[in-house]
Write a structure and sequence with these properties.
Elements (H helix, E strand, L loop, with lengths): L11 H16 L15 E6 L5 H12 L3 E6 L11 H10 L4 E6 L4 H6 L7 E7 L5 H14 L7 E5 L6 H12 L4 E5 L15 E3 L2 H5 L4 E4 L16 H8 L3 H4 L7 E3 L12 H4 L6 H23 L1
Parallel strand pairs: 1-2, 1-3, 3-4, 5-6, 5-8, 6-7, 8-9
Function: Catalyzes the condensation of carbamoyl phosphate and aspartate to form carbamoyl aspartate and inorganic phosphate, the committed step in the de novo pyrimidine nucleotide biosynthesis pathway.
Keywords: Pyrimidine biosynthesis, Transferase
Pathway: Pyrimidine metabolism; UMP biosynthesis via de novo pathway; (S)-dihydroorotate from bicarbonate: step 2/3
């Protein structure tokens, strides 16, 4: 694996390699035993052109644990604000000796263009592309699910929320399908129904109660107002919570050992009730911890493949 652009490009063997490597790091409290200097003398650039807390911070922590130098660049404080193209930004950083580019971009279709222009020694990781993909989030979610539900084949997974604008839903569905998950159900109001041609292996419903019945995994998603083109797409959030919020009452429809997930950031009282987000079935904080291990695993595998 030379780059990580889309989860759908990975085969099951590579996904399992990432999950196994992440598990190993987690079993050692996210310490890179034997890999402390794997990225020594490497420089990683975090280029985030959309807001991020979890992804950028966890990539920075993961890279430093593996011995890399890390620089953080955002659009406001870079020459991108002066009209420089992303390709020219990368070429400038390559000239400074940067080896890895971890990029979040609000526009779709950028990564294949970048591959045509970067040097052969450079490595590219997608940290979130528009509403198209978020492969590292999808992978850390697979890590989290597997640590609680050992066999994907028997899992009923429900992804609930603003599916029309969610890159997380896209990538997680791709990963669940690759792992031959038993059942993948997508749930949203009709206003946020996704293009199901993009969600191979899943089925859609707007009936939240039927979807949640006997679920093993529930992933809730926030309403992404920033991706809505006009106010006609907005919905009443209090009504959304009433109709589609994951409440403790609705959680009772799931299996007693079901886990509750959320990629963050959460809007409590909109897509999820606080008592559920902080309850015993929630693994939301665990997802954040697993994110560091998963991104360490991705960096490790890419570096070893390059070597």
């Amino acid at each position: 694996m030379k780059h990580l652009l889309y989860l759908k490009d990975l085969n099951q063997e590579t996904i399992n390699q990432i999950l196994d490597t992440a598990d190993n790091f987690l079993d050692h409290n996210n310490q890179p035993i034997g890999s402390e200097d794997l990225l020594k003398d490497k420089t990683i650039a975090n280029l985030f052109f959309e807001p991020s807390t979890r992804t950028r911070s966890s990539f920075q922590i993961a890279a430093r644990k593996l011995g890399a130098d890390v620089i953080n660049i955002d659009e406001e404080h870079s020459s991108r604000a002066k009209g420089e193209t992303l390709i020219d930004t990368l070429k400038t950083l390559e000239a400074m000796g940067v080896n890895y580019f971890i990029i979040r971009n609000k526009h779709s279709g950028v990564f294949h263009d970048l591959l045509e222009h970067i040097e052969n020694r450079s490595r590219l990781i997608n940290a979130g592309e528009s509403n198209i993909s978020h492969p590292t989030q999808g992978l850390l979610d697979l890590v989290t699910i597997r640590r609680h539900k050992k066999d994907f084949h028997t899992v009923k997974a429900v992804i609930l929320g603003d599916l029309a604008h969610s890159r997380v839903a896209r990538s997680l569905t791709e990963g669940l399908e690759k792992m031959n998950t038993g059942e993948i159900i997508l749930v949203s109001p009709k206003d946020y129904e996704p293009d199901m041609t993009l969600f191979k292996g899943a089925r859609y419903t707007d009936n939240i109660e039927s979807a949640l019945r006997n679920a093993d995994v529930v992933v809730t998603l926030r309403v992404q107002k920033e991706r809505m083109e006009n106010e006609t797409q907005f919905i009443d959030l209090s009504q959304y919570y009433k109709d589609y919020g994951l409440t403790s009452k609705r959680l009772e429809l799931c299996k007693k050992d079901a886990i509750v997930m959320h990629p963050g950031p959460m809007n409590r009282g909109v897509e999820i009730e606080t008592i559920v987000a902080d309850g015993p079935q929630s693994v939301i904080t665990e997802q954040v911890t697993n994110g560091i291990a998963t991104r360490m695993a991705i960096l490790s595998i890419i570096e070893k493949s390059a070597g």
